[in-house]
């Protein structure tokens, strides 16, 4: 098969897959998880049911793929934020703020508790949480080596501290409140006064 043809087919498949994921998420946000069916997703996406089943076996598989894509995009965003910041302390602060803002914004999305329960279970979520924890831990290690992060607590414990503390951003009332929470979290990372 010619390369151009192959690339065109691959691009088409990605576009159809993306449309399926976005449509399913939008339907859940509008009507709730229980109201979303494969037939409805196919209809709203503008494809036949047979085509939809070539991509996904059921609604759950679609929503898990949507969530995986969401998580991957968040991790990519955090990497970009890290790479744009200056020294180790600035990188850690920038990533923690970006993570807290993601948590805050995500809490304002109206996908419902049923969807959250569906996508926040199993191995895939555990893997994503471990990736995030490792990402923050590595920044903590860099900060400790630069002298801007305490060394009397293990990097793993400090990464957990950050992620649990910043989970409170989900119930924050404003972005300013989120930034205050980040400030408090960063204060807990500073080396103790001698």
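^ structure tokens above, recovered residues below v
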């Amino acid at each position: 098969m010619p390369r151009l043809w192959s690339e065109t087919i691959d691009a088409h498949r990605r576009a159809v897959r993306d449309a399926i994921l976005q449509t399913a998420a939008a339907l859940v946000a509008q009507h709730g998880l229980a109201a979303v069916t494969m037939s409805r997703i196919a209809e709203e996406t503008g494809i036949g049911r047979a085509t939809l089943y070539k991509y996904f076996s059921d609604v759950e598989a679609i929503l898990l793929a949507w969530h995986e894509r969401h998580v991957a995009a968040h991790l990519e965003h955090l990497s970009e934020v890290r790479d744009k910041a200056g020294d180790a302390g600035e990188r850690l602060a920038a990533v923690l703020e970006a993570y807290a803002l993601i948590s805050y914004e995500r809490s304002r999305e109206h996908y419902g508790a049923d969807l959250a329960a569906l996508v926040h279970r199993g191995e895939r979520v555990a893997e994503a949480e471990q990736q995030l924890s490792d990402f923050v831990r590595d920044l903590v290690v860099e900060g400790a080596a630069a002298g801007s992060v305490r060394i009397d607590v293990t990097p793993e414990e400090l990464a957990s501290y950050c992620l649990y503390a910043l989970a409170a951003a989900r119930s924050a009332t404003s972005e300013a409140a989120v930034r205050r929470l980040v400030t408090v979290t960063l204060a807990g990372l500073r080396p103790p006064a001698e």
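The chain has a mean pLDDT of 87.
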